[in-house]
Amino acid sequence: MAHRRWVVNASPLILLGKTGHLGLLGVLTDEVVVPRAVADEVGAKPDGGAALQEIIAASSFAIVENEEATLEILSWDLGAGETQVLAHALTHKTERVVIDDLEARRCAKAMRLGIVGTLGIVGRAKAMGLIDGTDRSDRACGSAPARNRTLRFRRTGAAATQGGRRIAERPPSDQDY
């Protein structure tokens, strides 16, 4: 079995850290790579220090030095973190980038990189039984308490339904969230 390495951007690290699910990354892949620019961005956030400490302590995470970005990546005019995620992925032939920024995802797609976002991480973890649908971590994200806001989704065929009403198509199996 090939060694699976994912390069992760700041927003998935911050969001998963806020909800107490940062460890999911280490369960879903063999190695989680965090470029220095991304680690700096996470550490600069008011609540990013705890996530950064968890990253440093986890054996499946590696903070790596920044790579020289190609002109092709630089032409997209992305942020420092996104640029370094893509530069590292291209230089080291990683399996996937974990990135939420739409423009960075477009760039990754144009460069034929595997892509997954925070929602894809949570979806994979739920499908594997690592988390359940009753997890109420939304308080950690600064939103109001989840009273009476729980949505129950049921899949029927290729569509997801809520209360009998069709709400979404299942994404093709070769496409990530």
Question: What's the CATH topology name of the domain at 5-122?
Answer: Rossmann fold
Termini separation: 24 Å
Strand order of the largest sheet: 3-2-1-4-5
The run of helices and strands is: EHHEHHEHHEHEHEEE
Question: How many strand units?
Answer: 8
CATH architecture assignment name of the domain at 5-122: 3-Layer(aba) Sandwich
Unreliable stretches (pLDDT < 50, length at least 5) are 137-163, 166-175
Q: Structural class of the helix and strand makeup?
A: alpha/beta
Shape: globular
CATH superfamily of the domain at 5-122: 5'-nuclease
CATH class descriptor name of the domain at 5-122: Alpha Beta
Whole-number average pLDDT?
A: 81
**How many helices?**
8
- Report the helical percentage: 25-40%
How would a textbook summarize the main sheet?
Answer: 5 strands, parallel
Describe the model.
The protein has 177 residues and is α/β, with parallel strands linked by helices. Helices cover 40% and strands 17% of the residues. It contains eight helices and eight strands; from the N terminus they run βααβααβααβαβαβββ. The strands form two sheets. It has a five-stranded parallel sheet with strand order 3-2-1-4-5. The chain has a three-stranded antiparallel sheet with strand order 6-7-8, with no helix packed on it. Strand 7 and strand 8 form a beta hairpin. It is globular.
